[in-house]
Prior knowledge:
This protein has helices at residues 10-26, 39-44, 67-84, 95-107, 127-134, 143-151, 190-207, 246-249, 260-267, 280-289, 297-302, 317-329, 331-342, 353-364; strands at 2-7, 32-37, 47-51, 88-92, 112-115, 137-140, 156-158, 181-185, 215-219, 237-240, 253-257, 272-276, 309-311. Strand 8, helix 7 and strand 9 form a beta-alpha-beta unit. The model has no long low-confidence stretch (mean pLDDT 91). The longest helix has 18 residues, at 67-84. Helix 3 (67-84) packs parallel to helix 4. The protein contains 14 helices and 13 strands. The chain is an alpha/beta fold. A seven-stranded parallel β-sheet has the order 3-2-1-4-5-6-7, sandwiched between helices. Strands 10-9-8-11-12-13 form a six-stranded parallel β-sheet, with helices on both faces. It folds into two domains: 2-161 and 349-364, Rossmann fold (3-Layer(aba) Sandwich), CATH 3.40.50.2000; 181-347, Rossmann fold. The two termini are 16 Å apart.
Amino acid sequence: MNLLLVAGDPSGDLHASRLIRALKKAGPADLRVAAVGGALMRREADEFIEDLASRGVAGFWEPVAKLPFMAKLALRLDRHLSQKRPDAVVCVDYYGFNRRVLGLARRRGVPAFYFISPQVWASRPWRIRALKRLVRKMLVIFPFEERLYRSAGVPCEFVGHPLLDELPPPLEKSSASAPLRVGLLPGSRRSEVARHLPLLLEALAKLRRHYPEARGEVFAAASLPDSAYPLGAAAGVELVRESDYARRQGLDLALCSSGTATLENALLGIPMVVVYRMSWPTYAVARALIRVDSIAMANILAGRKLAPELIQGDATPARVAEAAVRLLEDPRAYARLRQELASLRQTLGLPGACRRAAETILSESRRP
């Protein structure tokens, strides 16, 4: 049996690597997986075609400079589909490029599955029409996505969220510790780190006016080297690399960019301030397309603002620090917030998302 998996960003690389593991565990002994993704998928795949995840291609305008690379990669994948005739293609998030992969798979008569849906509920809902035409089944990780796709006539299965298999349970902390432990999570792409890390470091410095002994811990993305995190003369700040969330689990507060980290923090019960900055042209397009009131998944799942969100011009060090102080200054509200964040686990199904996704792919990929 022969499969092709395609992911294009660090979080997709992480989830796809775990899906490959589940496929090999549940599949036949002769199962072979070819992959486009990142370093984690490279370790699991039998054939690694290209590192797409570390290139940091995101936004609306920024990918234009990568068009020649993307075009060449699409040609390579078309040759792979023609020559190897995989039993299925599995696209993981990253709609911009994976939309092209889906078209190639359809042209070659290869069934396609989509694990981790693009956020059609947040912007560009017309993408559902393309997915309905090109995908054998959507394997989604949020329950509201299943309802959305089924109402549009798209074959869909809610498999649960893969983070439930990876995250330890939240610690039972009724108050912040002393000294205060503050996690800084500037993002998983170089461009995000470059925009957000200086902002978060300065916000931490301002927060220390209220909590002088506060310790900062910058959590590095697995796909980026230490050199991507120029901490410089930032006092009392440590660069942390971990894969088991043991250090993150004990944080009192997180200052983080919007993305997977916000959901991880929520499921660990960590109060947070969410920021996001992008280029102004990208921001202008995003404002015209985004249809949701919140950008942090914790807030979307809760249906209200559990975590303050500061976007673009509002994301200043002073405002980030002020929002952080408000979260910390009322011990009762702080304890209640930790419980409300951790309770979001109950909305995401049961552990075993990758196993369920793998079983569906294996059972339905050979179906006419």
